[in-house]
Design brief:
The chain is α+β, with helices and mostly antiparallel strands. It contains 5 helices and 9 strands; from the N terminus they run E-E-E-H-H-E-H-E-H-E-E-E-E-H. The longest helix is centred in the first third of the chain and has 12 residues. The relative contact order is 0.23. It catalyses: a hydroperoxide + [thioredoxin]-dithiol = an alcohol + [thioredoxin]-disulfide + H2O.
Length: 148
């Protein structure tokens, strides 16, 4: 089974989070930027459904290259109820292979591709969702978790 890359990142409060902190099933989702329309839609949908994840014993983390200050503002503005991790140099994004060519408003560019991983406590990847739709994301992930 494929392993999720080892990581050591700060959350919005400057606390270090690593693979060793994962105690059960974890959803780690990569998103391009705090406070942008698609990312806000995705984050708020997760916020509104966090109880469903918690009831299944699942922890949720968002990851982007934004600073912890940016993450703090995003969390406060949107009343988010899960941690956001800082991947400023895209080290984890590159290791997880979520950087690539994408179409942004008709222009091909290289950047972070919205991707979600479901991993177990041993960092085994149970499911990878590529090119995630911000509006359908939570529904797809919860459906997978309930089947598993």
């Amino acid at each position: 089974m494929e392993k999720f890359p080892k990581f050591r990142l700060e959350n919005q409060n400057g606390e270090i989070v690593t693979n060793d902190d994962l105690s059960g099933t974890t959803v780690i989702y990569f998103y391009p930027k705090d406070n942008t329309p698609g990312c806000t839609t995705q984050a708020c949908d997760l916020r509104d459904n966090i109880t469903s994840f918690n009831d299944l014993g699942v922890t949720v983390y968002g990851v982007s290259k934004d600073s912890k200050e940016s993450h703090q503002k995003f969390i406060e503005k949107q009343d988010l109820n899960f941690d956001l991790l800082v991947d400023e140099n895209h080290e984890l994004a590159k290791a997880a292979r979520v950087i690539g060519e994408k179409n942004v408003f008709g222009k091909l560019t290289v950047g972070l591709i919205r991707t979600t991983f479901v991993i177990d406590k041993d960092s085994n990847i149970l499911k990878r969702f590529d090119k995630v739709s911000p509006k359908k994301h939570v529904e797809q992930v919860l459906e997978f978790l309930k089947e598993g």
